């Protein structure tokens, strides 16, 4: 399997990242193990999670996804073959959020314990914290890297202005820099990332690992009418996508998929993987069948005509 360098770091990752948000939520532990096995057996190595997964589920307190991944790695003995990314900063409970040095210090220990590992390959600021100076946050990460608890750092959900400010601080003070950005980006959600973040990331050689690579499932093609919205827990989000532009996107995906003997989901992910500056889109799965579908996307080669057709149909303008 092809490996791509993440930013300027030493991390070499597969071109498709497995999202861990479903582990312990819509995929129980046994199912999660099967999904993780199928992903790793296909030769891919990049897994993304967060401490906050899945606080939104009644009765959950956060960390459920990390616990499952940790149990799986220990059972399989494969930690050194994987690139594990997790995040800090989202609210875990009262007074448990943000990017202050003290909070990062306690949060990283909790994540390491849940993951049953001595180090995190990519530790990401889950969302910006306007109440904490960026210098303090980057200084906290510097200590974690020095202590061997973190290999590289990344940002998620940052604006271009705040990401540039962080990069400038890192360069000026000799602090670790964000080597990756995790934005919302897919064939349907293009405008926000492409306007300012894309040129900044390409100029600064920031690895981009977009989440919602399949637009919460819309780009799989299974939501084509209002009657389809009840097909999953994410179906309620589909009304925002299923407009005239959304139907054009689905038609283009169908056309390219037919030419490539592929599925719409594979084409949507292949489009992301072919986009200059994108390191690895993130996609989650709740079954081995879904994993096989996703992995096949890494083998789809789009030509210029394919990409042009998808670009035209999804043009944000």
UniProtKB/TrEMBL annotation:
<keyword id="KW-0560">Oxidoreductase</keyword>
<dbReference type="InterPro" id="IPR020471">
    <property type="entry name" value="AKR"/>
</dbReference>
<dbReference type="InterPro" id="IPR023210">
    <property type="entry name" value="NADP_OxRdtase_dom"/>
</dbReference>
<dbReference type="GO" id="GO:0016491">
    <property type="term" value="F:oxidoreductase activity"/>
</dbReference>
<feature type="domain" description="NADP-dependent oxidoreductase">
    <location>
        <begin position="15"/>
        <end position="313"/>
    </location>
</feature>
<protein>
    <submittedName>
        <fullName>Aldo/keto reductase</fullName>
    </submittedName>
</protein>
<dbReference type="InterPro" id="IPR050523">
    <property type="entry name" value="AKR_Detox_Biosynth"/>
</dbReference>
<dbReference type="GO" id="GO:0005829">
    <property type="term" value="C:cytosol"/>
</dbReference>
<dbReference type="Pfam" id="PF00248">
    <property type="entry name" value="Aldo_ket_red"/>
</dbReference>
<dbReference type="InterPro" id="IPR036812">
    <property type="entry name" value="NAD(P)_OxRdtase_dom_sf"/>
</dbReference>
């Amino acid at each position: 399997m092809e490996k791509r360098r993440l930013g300027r770091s030493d991390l070499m990752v597969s071109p498709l990242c497995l999202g861990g948000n479903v582990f312990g939520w819509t995929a129980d532990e046994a199912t999660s193990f099967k999904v993780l096995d199928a992903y790793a057996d296909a030769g891919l190595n990049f897994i993304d999670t967060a401490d906050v997964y899945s606080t939104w589920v009644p009765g959950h307190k956060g960390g459920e996804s990390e616990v499952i991944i940790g149990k799986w790695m220990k059972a399989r003995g494969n930690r050194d073959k994987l690139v594990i990314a997790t995040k800090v900063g989202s609210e875990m409970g009262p007074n448990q959020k943000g990017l202050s040095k003290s909070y990062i210090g306690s949060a990283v220990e909790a994540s390491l314990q849940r993951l049953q590992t001595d180090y995190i390959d990519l530790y990401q600021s889950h969302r910006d914290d306007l109440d904490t100076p960026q210098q303090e946050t980057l200084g906290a990460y510097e200590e974690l890297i020095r202590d061997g608890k973190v290999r590289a750092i990344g940002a998620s959900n940052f604006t271009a202005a705040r990401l540039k400010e962080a990069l400038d601080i890192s360069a000026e003070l000799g602090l670790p820099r964000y080597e990756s950005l995790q934005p919302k980006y897919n064939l349907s959600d293009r405008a926000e990332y492409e306007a300012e973040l894309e040129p900044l990331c390409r100029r600064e050689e920031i690895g981009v690992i977009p989440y919602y690579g399949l637009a919460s499932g819309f780009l799989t093609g299974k939501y084509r009418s209002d009657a389809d919205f009840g097909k999953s827990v994410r179906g309620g989000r589909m009304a925002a996508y299923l407009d005239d532009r959304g139907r054009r996107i689905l038609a283009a995906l169908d056309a390219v998929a037919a030419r490539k003997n592929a599925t719409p989901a594979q084409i949507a992910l292949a489009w992301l993987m072919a986009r200059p500056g994108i390191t690895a889109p993130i996609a989650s799965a709740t079954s081995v069948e879904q994993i096989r579908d996703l992995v096949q996307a890494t083998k789809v080669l789009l030509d210029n005509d394919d990409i042009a057709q998808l670009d035209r149909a999804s043009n944000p303008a």
